[in-house]
Amino acid sequence: MLRSGLISIFIAMMALVHSPAKADEALVNFKMLNLETALELAQATLKSCQDDSFQVAVSVVDRFGNLQVTLRDRFAGPHTTETARRKAWTAVSFRTDTVALSDLTQVGKPQSGVRFIPGALMAGGGVPVEAAGSIVAGVGVSGAPGGELDDKCARDGIEAIADKLF
Fold this sequence. Notes:
4-stranded antiparallel β-sheet, alpha+beta, 47% helix, Beta-Lactamase, globular
């Protein structure tokens, strides 16, 4: 009887030891920017464009493409807020910056069909934000004179918060 009691206790202890592992396998952990850091990213990105005298809108989306922050400079065009959001969403969704996507999805290229996905915008200025090998956000810029300049502002903004992306 003592032996069967000890065996029961051992089995119960083993079940407790192995249960968390199964729970860990069933759940996913991830990182994303908190609101304060997303706002700091948007502000640093806007400042980069302002330093070059560009009137732009900046959007930051979370790793799932949900809007966290949008800032629009006073004279940025009315289209820039939605354009910036779509660029950020596209960068996160496709896990690639939109300058590269603009080239990869040109008419006649095998990936050209993705231009028809609702909400996707294959214009330069959307950049995924990475930390520890994972995408944690996306930033999109619209309003500079060209997608490459929007992209530069986005990358400057990311660089400004790089010390927080460990």
